[in-house]
Design brief:
Number of strands: 10
Radius of gyration: 20 Å
CATH architecture of the largest domain: 3-Layer(aba) Sandwich
Order of helices and strands: HEHEHEEHHEHHHEHEHEEE
CATH topology of the largest domain: Uracil-DNA Glycosylase, subunit E
Number of domains: 2
Structural class: alpha/beta
Helix content: 25-40%
Mean pLDDT: 93
CATH class of the largest domain: Alpha Beta
Shape: globular
Length: 257
Amino acid sequence: MWAQARASDVGPPRIALLACSVFEREIAHFARDASHIAETRFFEMGLHDRPDQLRATLRQNLEALDARTDIEAVALAYGLCGRGTAGLQPKHHKLVIPRAHDCITIFMGSKEAYAGHQRRCPSCYYYTPGWNRGRRVPGPERLEALKLELAKKFDSEEVEFLLESEREQWGRHDTVSYLDLGTDDAGTEADYARRCARWLGWKFERLQGDSKLLCDLLRGHWDADRFQVVDPGMSLGHSPDEYIFRAEPVAPELPKP
C-alpha cells in the first residue's frame, strides 16, 4: 500500500495524526502498514457539534505533541468543521489539513466531488460507517438516544418539543446518501443506512467513496491545491473561498495592563 511512497529516496514524512473517530476504521484500514505515523489520537465525533470545544481539544493535543522530536508534521483528519479547526497555531511542527468543509469531502475524495453531488442532490443526508456507529444519523435509534439524553435535562413537554424540532430538521431531506471507503463494516453499515431510509420514508443510494484524499493526507502527498500546510509560528485561518483555509500570521499578544 505504501510502495509508491517508499519508492522515493526520502520516503513519507514522519507524522503524528489527530483524527475524528468517524475515520477510525478507515484510518486503520489504509494506514495499517504506515510505520511513518508515529502516533494517532482519535477524538469523539460529537465535538463536531461544539466547534469551540473541538478547537480547544485539538490545541491541547498540539501542545502535547510539541515535545516530540521524532516527527516532522502533525496531520489533521478533519475539515473546517464549523470553524472548529480555524485558529490552530502550530509551534514546533508544521500542521497539515485537507481543504474540506467537513468529513464528507474526505469520503468523497475532493471538495469538487462533494459540491457536484450536492448540486445533483441538495436534499441528501450523508451517512457513513462511522456516523452510523455513533448513531448520529436520522433513524429510530438516533431519535431514542436523543430522547433519553434530553430527558436528563428537560421535562417531558420540553422533550417532545425538542424531538419535534429534530424531526422538522430531518424533514428538509428526502434521500439517504451512504458513503463508504471499502472497510470491513461497509456492507453492514449500508444495510443499516437502508433500514433508516425505509423508516424515514426516504430514497436510498449507496455511493462509492474515493480514498485518495485520505490516503494522501496519511502518506504526506500534500499538494497546495488539496491541502493547507501551516508552518510553525503561523495560524490556520478560514478562507471564505474555494481554498477554505489559509495560513495567517499570528497576532502579537497585547501587553497586560
